[in-house]
Amino acid sequence: MLITGLIFCVIVCFVVPLGGLVLCARRKKGAGKAFFVGAAAFVVSQICVRIPILQLVLPQYAWFAIMQLNPWKYGLFLGLSAGIFEEVARWVCIRFLMKEQRTLAHGLAFGMGHGGIEAMIFVGINVVVCLGMLLGGQGALLPLGPWDAFLAGGERLYAIGFHVGATLLVLKGIRAGKALRYLISAIILHGLLDAAIVILPGVYGVGQMGVWLYGALAGVLTLAAGLICIRKTECQKK
């Protein structure tokens, strides 16, 4: 069962986003550019800026250490900071780098790139290593079971869905001339999704499965909201 779970993770982290890229590229010219711009938006906003600040800069301040003792404050800080960095990066990239790539297909490709590179970096690479160890007869050394692998894959799946939905909301705002309104909405949704990872278990004692279900619901609803909003814009232009 563990090998099945790991293979599922590999499919979610690599096949789903890259398959989405191929499908979008077949529909619209420029989808490849949108995919890689989306990936770059995540790498710059998180890997190059936010995470170094969280790990190297803020630990030097006493208020940050104290805040970590309060799940509400710490969860909201992490969630909203992730939302601000990623959603602003999303807006900047779509606004200035994708002036001619603003259709539904381009938005889907951007979101796949953003969520896909996150999945590859944070889960996919480790899963490939674990799969190699398992196939090499070192499965006893792995610190996870089949259920953990399936949950990790499922978590990345709804996270990719969230990123696609958030991208479509930001794209809708830019196309409709209401960028600030939709950007703030995306930031709040992002904040609520990420904050729950700390708040639900820290305040309410919610288990791993409960957090997963909350995330899945948030991801599906954000994706649905993004699709509905952008489709209304596409229909109005026909």
Describe this structure in words.
The chain is mainly alpha-helical and 238 residues long. The protein has helices at 2-27, 31-57, 62-67, 71-97, 104-135, 146-176, 179-204, 208-237. Helix 4 (71-97) packs across helix 6 and helix 7 packs antiparallel against helix 8. The model has no long low-confidence stretch (mean pLDDT 95).
Number of strands: 0
Q: State the shape.
A: globular
Major sheet description: none
What is the beta-strand fraction? under 5%
Average pLDDT value?
95
Amino- and carboxy-terminal Cα gap? 49 Å
Element string (H = helix, E = strand): HHHHHHHH
Low-confidence stretches: none
How many helical elements?
8
Radius of gyration: 18 Å
**Helix/strand structural class:** mainly alpha
What level of helicity do the residues show?
Answer: over 70%
What secondary-structure arrangement, pairings included, does this model have?
Elements: H1 2-27, H2 31-57, H3 62-67, H4 71-97, H5 104-135, H6 146-176, H7 179-204, H8 208-237
Helix pairs in contact: 1-5, 1-6, 2-4, 2-5, 4-6, 4-7, 5-6, 6-7, 6-8, 7-8
Describe the structure using short key phrases.
238 residues; mainly alpha; globular
Short note summarizing the structure:
The protein has helices spanning 2-27, 31-57, 62-67, 71-97, 104-135, 146-176, 179-204, 208-237. By secondary structure, the chain is mainly α.
